[in-house]
Structure formats: C-alpha cells, structure tokens
C-alpha cells in the first residue's frame, strides 16, 4: 500500500465518524426497517477509490453508499444523495438488491413549497425494478408532474446517473 492510499484510508476513517445528519439517518433507518422488516441492521460504508469516483456520473463520498447487513447476512445496498429542486436540494434514498436492481426510492427531505408530489409512493414506484441497463426518460418512461417539472427532471437525471455509475462499479467489481 503506497502513501497516497494510506492517507486516503485515514482521511476516509476520520470523515466517516461524522456520518449522515441525524434527521436523515433516522429516516434512512426507518425505511430500511420497514422495507426489510428487520429491527437490527448495520450500514457499512463502501469506500470508492477517489480516482474512480471522479469518473462516475453520480457523486460518491464517504457517507452515501452503504452495504446493509443484518448479523452477517447481506440485505441490500443503500445510496443516499441530493438532487436539485427549483431553489434548493432534496435528499433521497435508493435501496438496491444484490443484483443492483432498485427495490425502493424515497424522497427523505423535500424543501420546497411546490413539487413535493415527487415524494409520493405512487410516483416513486416507477423506479422499482430499474437496473444498470435501463435508461430513464422524462415524459417517456418517467411520468411528468405538473408543478414539479424541475424536481422530476432532477430526480430522473439523478437516477440515470446512479444507474450508469452502478454499471461502472459493477464492471470494475467494486459492487
């Protein structure tokens, strides 16, 4: 292991101690418990090499891609990120099975007065079953929402970027 990798590892460990904001962590925990019907689980961060991370369409930091386990049994992957709305960002969660198929998408925190409909189960269910080989297209295979055009496009683009990133990470045998 060279000096660069040692420094990166130490930096990653130091930054991991900060973790997700408490309000986001609480909502993520609630979604995992409900989705997998478990009470106890661990979120283990997946650290992606910084050089590889720079090449990916999605943003990967030290606290947004996790392996979910209960005891020593793998349950799923969790990806937590932000996407743009009209004047702010919203936080969202994507849960993926072992084959990197979307099993749940959830808007965790939406900070606008309008467009919150993207957080509805009905709208978000269109992402379930999507894989790294799918391409999402606004007003084609992704339904538009009146009054939420920016947020819908943003979430669609964010999901496309995630799916493309997952394809790369899978091909590089990171996931």
Automatic annotation (TrEMBL):
Source species, domain of life: Bacteria
Keywords from the UniProt entry: Electron transport, Flavoprotein, FMN, Phosphoprotein, Transport
Domain FMN-binding, first and last residues per copy: 85-166
Gene Ontology MF: a single term: FMN binding
Pfam families: FMN_bind
UniProt GO cellular component terms: plasma membrane
Signal sequence, renumbered to the chain: none
UniProt xrefs under InterPro entries: FMN-bd, Ion_transpt_RnfG/RsxG
GO biological process terms held by the UniProt record: electron transport chain
PANTHER family: ION-TRANSLOCATING OXIDOREDUCTASE COMPLEX SUBUNIT G (PTHR36118)
Name recorded for this polypeptide: FMN-binding protein
Organism: Ichthyenterobacterium magnum
